[in-house]
């Protein structure tokens, strides 16, 4: 039985339809699984960054779809800051409101999936030197959710889907974010605006490509950005072969469903290269939200 979270320093979200925000660091590096039910650890190293991500096989590594929850929480925190409201890494929210924020349904299955995603975010462990300054150079493993409290209601039979008991959507849920992530959200330069249509993307690779383009800064800078397909394959931490990955990217380019961006693939200097273009012809981000204390 999990100990109760201290109610002392608790941010209670009351924002309505907040503008969507996400953390830039998590866009630019392979912290998340792009497939569901991945148990194989993610290990990524380049000349500056080292990342290791793992989780117990029972839960699996947090996915890019699970990350929608972090986008939702970050958006509520940012909206509160915009309204001059004090926030905290420990946040209380109505699960119905969070599901609506991230474009999900609000049926029984949606609440079960929300609870399962929060568990994966809690059980996934990250070791990285990104934002090492937050730990004064000390290696400190963390999870995307430091703690949580999901109220349950009585059920006579436990099922595989509700092995912890049935989550109660009628009472507030509590999630606590780690200092690494909360600090990144509250430092305003480290969060970026997200188009709501991002939640409509069903492909993990398509979601990762959008977030990579957003994190690179194409939303703020004119021009294009080129990436070799083999480098991109490594950068996203995918488990499929490079050939399968290339085929998936070609399908995404042909469908042209990424919000705000268009991508093309062509041979350049003997290498298959993906070109990202900020597409001003696509629908802009709609205005969202009014903070109501």
UniProtKB/TrEMBL annotation:
The domain of life for this entry's organism is Bacteria
Which Pfam family, just one, is annotated for this protein? RPA
| InterPro entries noted in UniProt | Replication_initiator_prot_A (IPR018777)
| Protein name per its UniProtKB record | Replication protein A
Q: Which organism is it from?
A: Chryseobacterium phosphatilyticum
């Amino acid at each position: 039985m999990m100990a109760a979270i201290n109610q002392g320093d608790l941010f209670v979200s009351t924002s309505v339809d907040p503008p969507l925000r996400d953390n830039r660091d998590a866009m630019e590096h392979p912290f998340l699984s792009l497939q569901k039910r991945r148990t194989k650890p993610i290990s990524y190293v380049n000349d500056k960054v080292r990342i290791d991500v793992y989780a117990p096989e029972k839960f699996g590594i947090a996915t890019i779809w699970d990350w929608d929850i972090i986008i939702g929480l970050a958006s509520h925190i940012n909206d509160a800051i915009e309204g001059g409201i004090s926030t905290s890494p420990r946040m209380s929210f109505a699960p119905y409101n969070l599901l609506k924020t991230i474009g999900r349904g609000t049926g029984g299955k949606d609440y079960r999936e929300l609870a399962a995603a929060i568990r994966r975010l809690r059980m996934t462990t990250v070791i990285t030197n990104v934002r090492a300054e937050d730990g004064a150079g000390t290696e400190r493993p963390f999870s995307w959710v430091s703690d949580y409290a999901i109220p349950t209601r009585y059920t006579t039979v436990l099922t595989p889907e509700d092995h912890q008991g049935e989550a109660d959507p009628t009472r507030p849920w509590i999630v606590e974010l780690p200092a690494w992530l909360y600090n990144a959200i509250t430092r305003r330069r480290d969060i970026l605006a997200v188009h709501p249509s991002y939640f409509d993307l069903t492909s993990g690779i398509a979601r990762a490509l959008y977030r990579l383009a957003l994190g690179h800064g194409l939303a703020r800078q004119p021009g294009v950005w080129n990436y070799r397909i083999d480098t991109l394959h490594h950068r996203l931490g995918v488990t499929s072969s490079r050939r399968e990955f290339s085929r998936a990217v070609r399908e995404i380019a042909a469908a042209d469903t990424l919000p705000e961006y268009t991508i093309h693939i062509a041979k350049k200097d003997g290498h298959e290269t993906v070109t990202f273009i900020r597409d001003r012809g696509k629908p802009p981000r709609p205005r969202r939200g009014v903070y109501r204390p």
